[in-house]
Amino acid sequence: MEKMRAIVCTKYGPPEVLKIKEVEKPAPKGDEVLIKIYATAVTASDIFIRGSQIPIQFWIPMRIMIGLTKPRKSIIGLVLAGKIESVGKNIKRFKPGDQVYGLTGFGLGAYAEYKCMKETDSMQGCLSLKPTNITFEESTSAAYGGLLALQYMERGNIQRGQKVLIYGASGTSGTIAIQYAKYLGAEVTGICSTSNVDLVKSLGADFVIDYTIKDSINLIEQYDFILDAVGKIKTSKLKEACKKALTLNGKYVSIDDGKLILDSKRLDLIKELVETGHIKPVIDRTYSLEQIVEAHEYVGKGHKKGGVAITICK
Q1: What distance in Å separates the CA atoms of residue 285 and residue 299, rounded to the nearest whole number?
Q2: Domain annotation for the chain: domains and CATH numbers
Q3: What is the average per-residue pLDDT within 281-298?
């Protein structure tokens, strides 16, 4: 029986509940591929699952899905990038050696050296060929931030010349959203803290509002589309003001307005946008598998820029 290393989470709690263990290496079924994971990421979703710090409006459905008293899946982790090691007999989209990236959905399991996934989209995950011009670590940010940004920005039907505001412009989805809005031809304003102003400008934002400035509310204009890229759990007077700063037909959307759709077609589009230079995913820090506790502590503070990656295989 072959073994692999994985981060195991057998109970809810602080980052220290995460432990490296040797577990059984999975084998693909006929409709699955076996992925050797080169990188994963520590996302806000991972923090919520590990600590059971689920927003009250999602508590009951999420606990039913992830486990009532402890994680139903002891190996958590939502995002992966790696190589196909082997495929089941019914697989058509992938072949051994393909470099892939995607999300594991409620299947979780990305905090490990190997993961089996189906090639078809479902709540158990979505998978696509990764962009060829970025690292496995950067691909984790592109997958998670890209799927969030594109799904919710598509609701705005953004047109060239319109004004777009990204609240939380320096996060994983916010950094992608700025670049996608610029790709669509919008005039983009990003909201972030002082330390992230230069980053947001470098991503193409036409204007940046520093929310730490006392009179930042007075800098808000009217926008055709506003994306709340930090989610409803974080509130402020500035965010409340943003909700009212809409043009007549303007739209305000939050990244937690409904469930994330796991869509390999969107991953294909993200791949194209990355490879053509329209989007460059941002990685704040990269940790080793042995530093998973430190990585969770850092992300839990809520001040990361872009994504935080975990290198599993080199």
Answers
A1: 10
A2: 3-130+282-311 (3.90.180.10), 149-254 (3.40.50.720)
A3: 97
